[in-house]
Amino acid sequence: MKRHLVLIAVFIIITAPAWGDTFTVPVPYPTIQSAVDAASSGDLILIDAGVYSDITHTVPPDTTRSVVIPISGITIRGAGAGLTIIDPLHQGRGIHCEGVTDVVIEDLTVTDAFAQVYAPGILIRNNSTATINNCDVSNNDDGGIIVYGFSTAYINDCTINENVAKQGGGLAVEEDSYAEVTGCELSRNISPSGGGLLIKARSTGIISFCEINENEIDFPNGSGGGINVITSDLTLLDSEVMNNTSDGTGGGIACRDESTLDLQRCRIHGNSTTAAYGPGGGLFADYSSLTMVDCLVTRNEVEGDGSEGGGLFCLLASPISITQCTFAANKIWEEEENFGGGIYLDFTSPTITKSIIANNDGYGIYCYNGSVPVVSCTDIYGNLDDNSICGTDAGDNFSLDPLFCDMPTDNFGIETTSPCAAGNHPNGGGACNGDRLGARDAGCTDSVEEGGVVTGLFLANRPNPFRTTTTVHFQLNKAGAVGLRIVDVTGRQVRSLVNRSLPAGMHTSVWDAKDDAGDPVASGVYFYLLTTNGETQTRRMVYAR
């Protein structure tokens, strides 16, 4: 299915950041906090390379100490992640934002934070607003970042790895809070709930172009090896959730207790539950709503006795909508009863359309306790025990080999001759509006599946926001003519970066914040448009020199 994104003129007042004074650390200000105490809103704290461990500051009545307690409206900028290091020496928090707004934290590392109560690397609490750019928040023992109590965080191009927490190993968003996370890695974090990411208590998250991999639930009956959503809303876009483990429910993602989960163009791969009665190797939805579009759910497993739903397990979940998704090669280790290797439904009646459910253990779709899915335009093939539709057959379903490009190497694209390719439906090219079935456009390459690429295009830029240059990354699943250009908010072209034919695969192009004439552009919001093979995608970037 072709996607056409039309850029409509957007009227935005753009102003270049107007720095006030600059306060440099360690000369003349010996500590970061001494510079903060001398600064006012609009000022810049510029920190040289080095390790900063001045763990002496508190926000009464809270007695937990921190290295830095920002004031509203300041920017705290290091010399780069791995160069400027905030290390509280396992005696408190790294950075504590308490009741402050418009704080920017960028280009630094926060590590080795720990205390008994809410002592992550970065704490954003009680109506605070903070933006975190290009930071490494890793190896903390009470969580990487916590956003709590009606607070808001914008987290861009950060590494949040190898943290241990009481809940939300890498990132926790709690108590009516909001987080936008873009271009980040959350990997190898550990906690009893939400190994990589926890969103709970009426909070909202929008996660895009992120890698949430190899996180772990370390407590019996925990939930959400990669992500756990509890009474909250999560939108996950163009991201991968891979090789996460739960000693309970939801190896990859769990959503529970009236949550809403919206997945678009995501890859859920290689996740597992290990405990007995641990349902949902890839995804677990309990009394929640779930929307999935263009998602790939592959090689997920449930390993314990009595565990079901290798790919997806739904209990009392409504509404559930699955469109153009692929569920393949998911596994159930239960020897006696292999129900729902692909999808297991319990008191749940989803709508499933234009999808592929193939080569899973047990049943492709298993219906229990009166579940009646409505299934249309779907290929259900090669599942170990059953390929039938246990609900309502709404038409144009079939059971034929989808012709995956190379399933042994996890390339779940489809051959151009696949019956699931656009226009190849066995009932005629016009069936299902001539659209493809499953998460992949037809066409195979020699490369193993990469990241969260589930359509013909992958598009992102790093860093974003940027001050000097930014690199646009894009992957093509097909060779063809490519146009990549920068436009302003009115749609006027600023710079053409690429205008030529390129082979399939990953490509990059650097923009130096200059226009076609070679003149520097003004700070502000820009869009970059990638067009190839009749498809266009648009992304937003911010230039803040």
TrEMBL record:
Pfam families found in the cross-reference section = Beta_helix, FlgD_ig
SUPFAM superfamilies, A to Z: Pectin lyase-like
Q: Which InterPro entries match?
A: Beta_helix, FlgD/Vpr_Ig-like, PbH1, Pectin_lyas_fold, Pectin_lyase_fold/virulence, Secre_tail
UniProt domain FlgD/Vpr Ig-like: residue ranges = 472-527
**What are the residue boundaries of the Right handed beta helix domain, all occurrences included?**
144-327
Q: Which PANTHER family match?
A: G PROTEIN-COUPLED RECEPTOR-RELATED, OUTER MEMBRANE PROTEIN PMPC-RELATED
Could you identify this protein by its name?
Answer: Right-handed parallel beta-helix repeat-containing protein
In its UniProt entry, the species of origin is given as Eiseniibacteriota bacterium
